[in-house]
Amino acid sequence: MQKIQLGQSDLRVAPICLGTMTFGEQVDEPTAHAILHRSLERGVDFIDTAEMYAVPARKETCGATETIIGNWFAKNPGVRGKVVLATKVAGPSRGMPWIREGSGMTAADIVASCEGSLRRLQTDVIDLYQIHWPERHVPAFGNMYYDPSRETSQTPIREQLEALAGLVKAGKVRAIGLSNETPYGVHEFVRLAEQHGLPRVASVQNVYNLLHRGVENGLDETMHRLGVSLLAYSPLGFGLLTGKYDESGITGPSAPQNARITRYESVRKQRWGRPEALAAARRYNALAAATGMTPTQFALAFCYSKWQVASTIIGVTSLAQLDENIDTWGHRLSQDVLAEVDKLRWEMRDPAI
């Protein structure tokens, strides 16, 4: 796998990124360390985590994922220098008072969160430090519409950038990024950075898969013109695009009992639990079979084939899943197959947006 440059930063990363939000909830520490080892052996040296992980978010597991990764670094001297490490500062509480109180995310919050991540990760520097979701009220995580009456913003974007600039200047962060962002947010972060000599965002980490192609509703043009890279998360649509729910649905007797949607009611209540999302997934999974690919291969090849995507974030719970996802790297969807995908999207749109 050829390395790609993240935005205009000096970070060069693998086109596949290991997502770790299952570490500390579905995945225990020994298994997580085995996955990390195998990932690095296979050339996936880009690791993404967050202060709020593991997921589903609970007070008891907040920070657990970073701690597991930090313990891996401590047990394996020299490995830290071989990976590009990304983590995220949580935005406003969103019902998680154990992260921070109130509806805002102050400059002091950003600095304190970074210090906490550095301690848990047992490292001196974070390669890519991202804002997990905007401090502003935006349509995200299944909310479709922007509602100005719900705006609670307290910390201007320039103030957020200045806090991040302080971390970069102190040598604690190499580059910065965003997540779950909108075209407006990306434009404003870049505009203010260029106007005031502040760090420029290198990347945006947003959901992108066959069931949720919202990136292509204008954000892709924004990122292309501004030189910002897309990190695509949830390429398998929380498992819907693996085919494992096709026969019995997400709550049927043959649904895998340890899978996230089956196991966690909070996940089923989100966009991935919509009947429309499962119905669309079944159609895409059938198209995968018609092309001679497994649903997992097809869904990942979709992301691997798209010019919009710089690196695809894969989340796994076993070595077998990791190997399958990495093995798919050589697969690409032809223009004819992508045209068939677009026909299905025209019919079903984005049911998990």
From TrEMBL:
Keywords: Oxidoreductase. Pfam families: Aldo_ket_red (PF00248). Residues 15-344 form the NADP-dependent oxidoreductase domain. The keyword Oxidoreductase applies. InterPro entries: AKR (IPR020471), AKR_Detox_Biosynth (IPR050523), NAD(P)_OxRdtase_dom_sf (IPR036812), NADP_OxRdtase_dom (IPR023210). This is NADP(H)-dependent aldo-keto reductase. It comes from Variovorax defluvii.
